[in-house]
């Protein structure tokens, strides 16, 4: 494929879905501009995130940071069941104090270079029970429904962060991850504001242009140029929401031409930069 797809829109602080795919589906690589939590329940799935591949077991927790390119792949015809939570990055930012930060679990995933947590007896844990209660609360129209959902969600995030920080969980190593690809992705993400070209990467990693382009597309499903552009757009959106002017965000995120930036931004987010909504 030649483009990376942005999927899912979040107009609330968080949303929860319980999904079963009873037939094999083909998922494309895609990303979201919000964080995503998946509790995997059943199926035989390989989950790819930013060049890393994970063979999932029931009750594994997958943490996908905003902007990370990912997709699941069916390995057989068994039912793929999971609970998915979309979580606003702006919402989580509100819950940061001297002794807590609800973003810690996502930050730990980056630090550990692993997107998958495996918790012993997860199905019997308080974390999972709160998750189920949260899911069921969306079917309930009782008094203070939305407030109750928010309380349950915050309780879920507290338990998740406690688990992530406890040292009693396993951060899965990725299966068959190509070290060269991971190095290239890391380099790109650390140098987005700079001039990155195929020649730059070719020289940095001692690879021919042709091999590099073929290798990247073969391993990830998208081109180097599209990957860099999408990452820069997400960086620019975050800068605008953090208080930068549109022009500052354009050049700080690595774009050299404002017109090119404006067109790409509108195509990706269906709005002009000056109207960029909060990540909600």
TrEMBL record:
<protein>
    <submittedName>
        <fullName>AraC family transcriptional regulator</fullName>
    </submittedName>
</protein>
<keyword id="KW-0805">Transcription regulation</keyword>
<dbReference type="GO" id="GO:0043565">
    <property type="term" value="F:sequence-specific DNA binding"/>
</dbReference>
<dbReference type="InterPro" id="IPR003313">
    <property type="entry name" value="AraC-bd"/>
</dbReference>
<dbReference type="InterPro" id="IPR018060">
    <property type="entry name" value="HTH_AraC"/>
</dbReference>
<dbReference type="Pfam" id="PF02311">
    <property type="entry name" value="AraC_binding"/>
</dbReference>
<dbReference type="InterPro" id="IPR009057">
    <property type="entry name" value="Homeodomain-like_sf"/>
</dbReference>
<dbReference type="InterPro" id="IPR037923">
    <property type="entry name" value="HTH-like"/>
</dbReference>
<dbReference type="Pfam" id="PF12833">
    <property type="entry name" value="HTH_18"/>
</dbReference>
<dbReference type="GO" id="GO:0003700">
    <property type="term" value="F:DNA-binding transcription factor activity"/>
</dbReference>
<dbReference type="InterPro" id="IPR014710">
    <property type="entry name" value="RmlC-like_jellyroll"/>
</dbReference>
<keyword id="KW-0238">DNA-binding</keyword>
<keyword id="KW-0804">Transcription</keyword>
């Amino acid at each position: 494929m030649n483009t990376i797809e942005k999927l899912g829109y979040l107009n609330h602080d968080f949303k929860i879905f319980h999904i079963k795919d009873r037939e094999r589906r083909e998922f494309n690589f895609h990303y979201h501009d919000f964080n995503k939590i998946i509790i995997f329940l059943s199926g035989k799935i390989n989950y790819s995130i930013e060049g890393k591949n994970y063979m999932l077991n029931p009750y594994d927790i997958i943490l996908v940071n905003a902007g990370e390119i990912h997709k699941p792949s069916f390995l057989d015809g068994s039912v793929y069941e999971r609970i998915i939570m979309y979580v606003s990055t702006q919402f989580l930012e509100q819950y940061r104090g001297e002794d807590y930060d609800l973003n810690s679990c996502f930050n730990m995933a980056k630090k550990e270079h692993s997107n998958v947590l495996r918790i012993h007896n997860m199905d019997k844990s308080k974390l999972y029970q709160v998750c189920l209660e949260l899911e069921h609360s969306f079917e309930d129209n009782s008094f203070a429904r939305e407030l109750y959902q928010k309380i349950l969600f915050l309780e879920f995030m507290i338990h998740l962060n406690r688990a992530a920080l406890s040292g009693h969980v396993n951060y899965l190593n990725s299966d068959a991850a190509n070290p060269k690809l991971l190095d290239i992705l890391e380099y790109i993400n650390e140098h987005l504001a700079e001039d990155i070209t195929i020649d730059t990467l070719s020289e940095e990693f001692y690879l021919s242009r042709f091999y590099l382009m073929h290798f990247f597309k073969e391993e990830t499903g998208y081109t180097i140029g599209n990957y860099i552009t999408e990452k820069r757009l997400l960086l620019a959106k975050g800068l605008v929401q953090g208080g930068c002017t549109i022009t500052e965000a354009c050049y700080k995120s690595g774009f050299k031409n404002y017109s090119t930036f404006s067109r790409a931004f509108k195509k990706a987010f269906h709005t002009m930069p000056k109207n960029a909504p909060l990540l909600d």
